[in-house]
Amino acid sequence: PPLSPCSPSNGSSRKLSVDEMYLSDTGGQYLDGTTDITRTVHWGVPTPLQKEAYTRVLMGNIDLSCLIFPPNTAGGTVESFARRALWDVGLNYGHGTGHGIGNFLSVHEWPVGFQSNNVPLTAGMFTSIEPGYYHDGEFGIRIEDVALVVEAQTKKPFLTFEVVSLVPYDRNLIDLSLLSPKQIRYLNAYYETIRARVGPELQRQQLEEEYRWLQRSTEP
Q1: Which three-class secondary structure state does DSSP give residue 186?
Q2: Residue 58 CB-half CA count within 13 A
Q3: SUPFAM superfamilies, alphabetically (predicted)?
Q4: pLDDT in the model for residue 14
Q5: CA 126 to chain centre
Q6: What values do phi and psi take at 160, rounded to 5?
Q7: Beta bridge partners of 146
């Protein structure tokens, strides 16, 4: 059959180079759930703007993921936490901060999410958290994780998020000087979780190259 307009071809494709930023939006349907994970990478030397923008997108992802909030809070009430680090320097993104994710159902599943017309967040809901930044004609950034709404360890029953996506972020693009001690502690704890849960599975499958990559990518 003829190639679709989205299929790569020798005439329209170009080779990847180490001099650019790449955004990979991935996901799959499994019998026990649905994944939707976006990572942005740069294999060379990123520009100062690329590095700062990426770091601020990551800061927003972390700030919302760590947020503790009252029960029955609407997502639209708290989504600005994902934008604050970008707003601090006059940057923003023009899409929603996250959407509900079905369990082997729709990847974008109503009515959960961070828009003004979504239902209040309740323990047990799955949502994406996906701030980004886009520089027209040059590069795009998005960092998307799947998060479960859970009860927080507070005196009164408040809520928070547990990120269930287990994929490292690109160390090459993180400007550590911008991160707060709390954000660095979050990253280290997240990387420990990735190592503990994914590492043994890679070893079980004898994926040694992948295991070594995981260890490098999750160093404190």
Answers
A1: helix
A2: 26
A3: Creatinase/aminopeptidase
A4: 80
A5: 14
A6: -155, -170
A7: 128
